[in-house]
Amino acid sequence: MSRFDLAIIGGGLVGASLALALQGQAKTRGWRIVLIEPFAPGDGYQPSYDARSTALSFGSRQIYERLGVWARIAERAEPIREIQVSDRGRFGATRLRAEDEGVPALGYVAENAWLGHCLWQAIDHQVIHWRCPAEVTRLQVLDGGYRLFLNDDSSLDCDLAVLADGGRSGLREQLGIHVQHTAYRQSALIANITPAQAHDGQAFERFTADGPLALLPLADNRCALVWSRVHADAQRLLALDERSFLGELQAAFGYRLGALRQVGARHLYPLALVEAQEQVRPHLVVLGNAAHSLHPIAGQGYNLSLRDTWALAEALLESLAPLGDFATLQRYQQMQQLDQQLTVGFSDRVTRLFSNATPLLAAGRNLGLLGLDLVPPAKRWFARQAMGLGTRLHR
């Protein structure tokens, strides 16, 4: 039976980032790390019009610079130079500009497939052992660690297990880790759009009586659409032909980018705030979407997970205790507690405020958007939240 110091369950963006953060010192410390992932990466990056994407904050860029992969990611990461926030049918609006914050971009948008390719290519397979394709079907608590049972009838032991297997983690449920689930009664319609005009690095957050929508700049003058609607209406939009769909989107978004010319494959995702009630146990960490899944409209979910990942790596590397030491894991959680509380709260409040058509609330948020331009400190706070710099600066 194989014995490892650390087993990362899930080799997606979060799991691969953790492996990268640890591999530099793992060899020096004699750590044996295994990364277990059910879906084997392809032979290489293949561009696709319909590729799903992730918004990376400026803070996430800083982390990937420290991991030595940002230069590669940046080759196909579209910079967000300006964010326009508006409320349909009202005067309230504000603009956040990178130049006002003294940064080259407020954030970036990159295709998930490209991000994954860059991370996987940077992993040192002499240090990080791959079990792929493979899936953990069961975990057994041991004295001093966990035993992992895989779907190929093999098993391995580890001192520290990290669950990074996504928001629908069956292992989290199997271990009896409860989640707080807050449904937003909306679905997100995701698609890529091509406008007639160049987006020039502009991102748009548009709030309407029917729900918020975001258009984020992508490479090749595409835009990533996230459109939140009540479930029935989202299903209706999904079923429309391309021309009718673009017509409804144009009416909701306007002509800031001219006519909307093309829409790719459309996908629906029910929206909820999901928070694990336990993120650490002795010899166990719950990370990424398995720990918290946020509404996508504020673009904070993956960035928070990446900050968690960086903080966990810092805590493990700074500790003199063996991997899996509960006090070390508790320090990590305490280190990230404020960041998580503020980010989850910010995302949840923005979602609720801008998904409510009540006239009094709509008037209040309209004044709030106007006020951001009139009160520079408030606007700067809002910008720093969007940039992933609102709570803790990384060393």
List the helices and strands and how they pair.
Elements: E1 2-9, H1 13-29, E2 33-36, E3 53-57, H2 58-66, H3 70-73, E4 78-80, E5 82-87, E6 93-97, H4 98-101, E7 107-111, H5 112-122, E8 128-131, E9 136-142, E10 145-150, E11 155-163, H6 170-174, E12 179-195, E13 202-208, E14 211-217, E15 223-229, H7 231-239, H8 242-253, E16 260-263, E17 267-276, E18 280-281, E19 284-286, E20 292-293, H9 301-318, H10 326-354, H11 359-374, H12 376-386
Parallel strand pairs: 1-2, 1-11, 2-8, 5-13, 11-19
Antiparallel strand pairs: 3-7, 4-7, 5-6, 9-10, 10-11, 12-15, 12-16, 12-17, 13-14, 14-15, 17-20, 18-19
Pathway: Cofactor biosynthesis; ubiquinone biosynthesis
Protein name: 2-octaprenyl-6-methoxyphenyl hydroxylase
Keywords: FAD, Flavoprotein, Monooxygenase, Oxidoreductase
Q: So, the CATH homologous superfamily of the largest domain?
A: FAD/NAD(P)-binding domain
| Helicity, as a percent range | 25-40%
- Would you report the number of β strands? 20
CATH C-level category of the largest domain = Alpha Beta
Structural class: alpha+beta
User: How many structural domains can be distinguished in the coordinates?
Assistant: 2
**Number of DSSP helical runs:** 12
Outline: globular
End-to-end separation in angstroms reads 39 Å
Mean pLDDT: 87
Q: Roughly what fraction of the amino acids lie in strands?
A: 25-35%
Rg, rounded, reads: 21 Å
Summarize the biggest pleated sheet: 9 strands, mixed
Multimeric organization? single chain
